[in-house]
Structures are given as C-alpha cells and as structure tokens.
Amino acid sequence: MARIPKLTTTLAYDRYMAGQRLVSSVDRAWRHLVLRSYLEPAEQELLEAPGLQDLTLMTLASGAEHLERNLHGRWESADLRVGDLWFVPPAPISWRWPSISDEPLSTVHLHLERSLIDSVAAQMELGGTRELSLGDAMQFHDPLIAAMLGALHRAAGDPADSRLYVDAPVHALAAHLLQHYSHGREASGRLLAPPKQLMPRRIRRVTDYIRANLAADLTIDELAGHAGLSSFHFARVFRRETGEPPHRFVTRLRLEEAARLLRATDQTVLHIAIAVGFESASHFSVQFKRGCGVTALAYRLRG
After folding, report:
1. Which of the chain's termini has less CB crowding within 10 Å, N or C?
2. Beta pairing partners, 24
3. What distances in angstroms separate CA 226 from CA 203, 216, 236, 246, 277, one per listed residue?
4. DSSP letters along 134-174, please?
C-alpha cells in the first residue's frame, strides 16, 4: 500500500474517501470552498487519510454511525447522528465505523480556504486573535453551522444556485467560526456593528452598478466595495435596505432584462443568457422557468 502523506490538497483528498460521491462543488464557479457529500459504506474497517491545510468540517446528512478515529496514535470514538459536527485536524488520521441506523449513511464535507478565514478576520478586526481553536474536536454541536452546511449542500446540488448566492453564507460561516471558536474572542472577538444609518445613496450606488453590469461576474466582495462596507456586513445591510438578499436582487434584474430581450430581439436564448450574466444556458433555463413559470422559448412564443 502506498504511504499516506502528512498533508494533501482539498482536491486530492477525494481519492482517500471510501464512499460513493453524491454531490460536489468542484465544477461550480464557487470561491473559497469545496463541498462534497458521500454515500458511505455501512461498515468501514480502516480508512487512512492525510491531513488538510484547509479548514475542514464534516457532518452526517443521513443515518448514524459509531465513528472511531486514531489521531497521534490514540483511538477515540463517538456516536454521531444527523446534525452532529466534527472537525478534521491538519494531520494524518485513521477512521473506522459501523452504521448504527437502518438509514443510509451519508456525510457532507466542507473545506474552507484559510485565506477566507484571514480575510473575514481582518474585516472583524480580530488582528492576531484570528486563529481558530476547534482543537481536535471529535464531536460538537452547533445548530447554526449544521444549518449552513445543509444550505450549502443543497446549493451544490442545485444548478440554479449561483456563486453570488453562496458567497453570503460562506462569509457568514467564517465569521461565526471566528466569533465563537477563535483564540481570545472574549477580549477582541466582538463583531463590528453595521452603520447606524446607511445613506440611501450608498445602496443606490450598488443597485445602479448592478443594473449597468448585469453581464459581469458580480461577487459579494465587489458589491460590498461599492457600498463602502465589509463583505461580512454588506449582505445583511443590503437586505435591510432593499428587502431582498443580493443574489435574489441580481437574479431578478437579470431575469427582467432577459424577458425584455426575448420580447424585443431575435437573439438566441444562449446569447441572451450570457448577455445578462448567467453562468450557462442550463443555469439560465432553470432560473427563468423558476422565476417566470415558463421556459424562455415558450415566453418568446407567447409574445
């Protein structure tokens, strides 16, 4: 058997998994994270894997298991059920388990780039206290993290969900981890409060920019910059001021422009999809039917 390296990349980590991959975000245009889920064998005698430098969290999506792991030469175990979380330390590790449920056993693996953690920490003004201290957590409970992983898992399997949609929960997850699981948070982990009064012209600046750049690859970081806010606070402030989260606002404007072009021009559906900023024709088709109730072709024929 080939020797297991001490560390590997998130993309290469897949080769060490025992289960059948169900969902993967690798081919999606997502930044700062990789999410994959697996249908696991009901029993695994021994699974050896290297460590990862990216922050890695796992949870059960279905079933239950008696999970055992060997870290630094010491075996420990826990009974895990849906919603339980565990942290994968950046060190070689061995796993084994039997299922303890009649339900299929499936797991969700989320890998967050360290650069995202550092960026959000800077926005929160944590300074030198940004190092996360999840330690060697074999099992912990955090309903908010579990809910975020569930939302990202659903997004990874839905071709209609865009990168802009994913940006907001990923930044929020990083901020939550830093707020509650970082060294020295009692002294300096306080989140920055949003401005007490956000002048309407700030949001108008962003919405005007969106309307003028629908075809562009809009991101939370870019839109936040135009509002003069950190990306961590931007999504919440934008929703408060407009009544919609940024991804929904952008999608609505793109669909409105696409509908106008379908009525007023003879451009192909593919050309229109690209012109209004959708990642692909299939992404556009799913979103258009979801938003308008009919396919783009049927909408055009209806006049």
Report:
1. N
2. 36
3. 9, 14, 15, 13, 19
4. -TT-SSB--HHHHHHHHHHHHHHT-TT--HHHHHHHHHHHH
CATH of the domain at 36: 2.60.120.10
Q: What is the pLDDT of residue 135?
A: 63
Tokens 């991959």, residue?
21
Q: How far apart are CA 267 and CA 252, in angstroms?
A: 20
CA-angle at 20, arms to 94 and 5, nearest 5°: 35
Structural contact between residues 140 and 87, judged by C-beta atoms closer than 8 angstroms: yes
Distance CA 247, CA 253 (A): 10
Q: Is residue 187 part of a domain?
A: no
Strand arrangement of the beta sheet that strand 93-98 belongs to: 43-49, 93-98, 64-71, 74-81
Shared domain for 154 and 25, answered yes or no, is yes
Range of the domain at 263: 253-302
**Cα gap 259→263, rounded to integer Å:** 6
Residue 2 included in any domain: no
Token pair listed for 196:
């007490």
218 close to 210: Cβ distance less than 8 angstroms:
yes
Are β-strands 7-8 and 51-52 bridged in parallel, bridged antiparallel, or unpaired? parallel
